[in-house]
Amino acid sequence: MIGETGEAVALEDFIQAVQSQLDTAQARMTLKAQNDRLPLTFAIRDISMDLKAHLELNQGELRIRPAGPSDKDPTVLHLVFTAITKPMIEENAVPLSVDDKNDVPLSALGDELDPAERRRLEGIGVRTVEKLNELERRGLSNSVGRITRLAPDKLEQVLARASRPMVDDVSRDGADDGDQADALRQRLRVKGRNLLRGGMPPQVTIAGRPVDIVQAHDHELVLAPDRDQLAGQMSLTHDPRAPTELWFDQAPRRALSTPPSNGFDGGQP
């Protein structure tokens, strides 16, 4: 019986369960041959099975439910499991990419994509924001929209959101000692992703006023704010349709003045 109560299960879960048990059987036969020092033994080569089941499509996932004895016209799945070698596995397997801390999943776009739209993009191999940006740079936006049935304006909105600056941290260079010369040299460091587009930095404003950019990299901007721009609302804009806005506070903290001594030294009168 598939599932604990005959409920439908994902097709890949069923196949993986069969594979796991075949691997276990193969390992046991190998250990038996090694421990008993048998000159001749047996191995699993091919297994064929016909599975009568009903197919269900649930949110883009194919699930199978076993057919009962009285069910009419069930679907017959003819499955063949065969032995393959390690080089064959490596040749045909999908390469697993190394996790990149800068690779942001599509789910990070929030409500811009509903689950069905995200699954359609994942179905053509688009699982991260960077991959979506890459398709835009290659001029494939129209093809992606047609294949995934995303409306052109919706796809443009998603692409604008995906390529907008993403800020992870805002910090300040300089001391809090109140030195005026040092205050004039204070810099804000904005760290994140997508801070450059086409090699150009975004327009940056703090409290509604422009801020000079003294250094620009894709993962960091160095800003030269005025003395009254070390706190407030910061806006970074490549595309007016998708600005990045955040509140920050890097204003110097002034040390509390030492209260005057009252002459009491704790001694006895």
Describe the structure.
Helix content is 28%, strand content 28%. By secondary structure, it is an alpha+beta fold. The chain has three domains: 9-92, no CATH class; 106-162; 166-249, Immunoglobulin-like (Sandwich), CATH 2.60.40. The strands form three sheets. A four-stranded antiparallel β-sheet has the order 1-3-2-4, covered by helices on one side. Strand 9 and strand 10 (220-224) form a beta hairpin. The N and C termini lie far apart (93 Å). The model is unreliable at 263-269 (pLDDT under 50).
Number of helices: 7
Order of helices and strands: EHEEEHHHHHEHEEEEEEE
Largest sheet descriptor: 4 strands, antiparallel
The total domain count is 3
Helical content band: 25-40%
Which residues sit in consecutive blocks of at least 5 with pLDDT less than 50? 263-269
The separation of the N and C termini measures: 93 Å
Dominant shape: elongated
Strand order of the largest sheet: 1-3-2-4
* Tally of DSSP β-strands: 12
How much strand?
A: 25-35%
Give me the secondary-structure category: alpha+beta
Mean pLDDT: 79
Radius of gyration: 31 Å
Helices, strands, pairings?
Blueprint: E1 9-10, H1 11-36, E2 46-58, E3 61-66, E4 75-82, H2 86-92, H3 115-122, H4 129-137, H5 141-148, H6 152-162, E5 166-173, H7 180-184, E6 187-193, E7 203-206, E8 209-210, E9 212-217, E10 220-224, E11 231-237, E12 244-249
Antiparallel strand pairs: 1-3, 2-3, 2-4, 5-6, 6-10, 7-8, 7-11, 9-10, 11-12
